[in-house]
Amino acid sequence: MAPLPALSRAVARSAARLPTTTTTAVRAVSSSPALRGSDSSTYQSPFRGESKSSRIPDFSKYMSKGSGAGNALFGYFMVGTLGAISAAGAKSTVQEFLVNMSASADVLAMAKVEVDLASIPEGKNVIIKWRGKPVFIRHRTAAEIDEANQVNVASLRDPESDEQRVKRPEWLVMLGVCTHLGCVPIGEAGDFGGWFCPCHGSHYDISGRIRKGPAPLNLEIPAYDFSDDGKLVVG
Ligand code: FES
């Protein structure tokens, strides 16, 4: 066992070191640099083991010399300008995309077909090609128009009056595709004086309405119009 005076000296030495140890611990847990004294250009490092103080760099030469309002104005100008440039870029991108996706001039030209009606005599059929399909154009006589109007619409498989199927009574315009399985019917044939499909025996009347046979619907009417110069525009 150590002699009593030697033990007392050891305790005294430990007590003398205690304040220094406590100070180090406090510094170690501090998370913000401690400014030294009243000099704000230096700070005490908060990290353990760094005992030297450091100087805060001088950024004053980077500071704006202008007023606060001037700086704000410059900021607004930059934000506005960049926003305008971004919007113009986005518009250009979308516009390019839409132009590329839209139909080209040759495709649009094929979408419509013009027919000179003066070249079709009364009582005659003409077949034109539109978008790869046949289109029947018949210049109907007054007797054919009367015949088409005298049909009892309620008795039809696909009830449609003749008025609903034409824009001008003398001109009947239809797709020449049988509504059964897509054959091309023959004109001026069949039991009803209209069109006859030889594939399975469908009969259409002078208004293109199905009257007999397996076809479920009347011949389809495409989009068309009459131009001022006496032409029919299909499409
Ligand atoms: S395709 Fe015309 S009747 Fe069958």
Would you mind describing this structure in some detail?
This protein has 235 residues and is an alpha+beta fold. The chain has a domain at 111-234: Rieske [2Fe-2S] iron-sulphur domain (Rieske Iron-sulfur Protein). The protein has five helices and 13 strands. The chain has helices spanning 4-29, 68-101, 105-111, 142-149, 162-165; strands spanning 34-35, 42-44, 54-55, 113-116, 125-130, 133-139, 171-175, 186-189, 193-197, 202-205, 210-212, 224-226, 231-234. The strands form four sheets. A four-stranded antiparallel beta sheet has the order 8-9-10-11, with no helix packed on it. It has a three-stranded antiparallel beta sheet with strand order 1-2-3, with no helix packed on it. Strand 12 (224-226) and strand 13 (231-234) form a beta hairpin. The longest helix is centred in the middle third of the chain and has 34 residues, at 68-101. The N and C termini lie far apart (118 Å). Mean pLDDT is 82; it is low at 1-5 and 18-37. It binds FE2/S2 (inorganic) cluster (FES). FE2/S2 (inorganic) cluster (FES) is lined by residues 178, 180-183, 197, 199-202, 213-215. Its EC number is 7.1.1.8. Residues 27-53 are annotated as: Disordered. Keywords: 2Fe-2S, Disulfide bond, Electron transport, Iron, Iron-sulfur, Membrane, Metal-binding, Mitochondrion, Mitochondrion inner membrane, Respiratory chain, Transit peptide, Translocase, Transmembrane, Transmembrane helix, Transport.
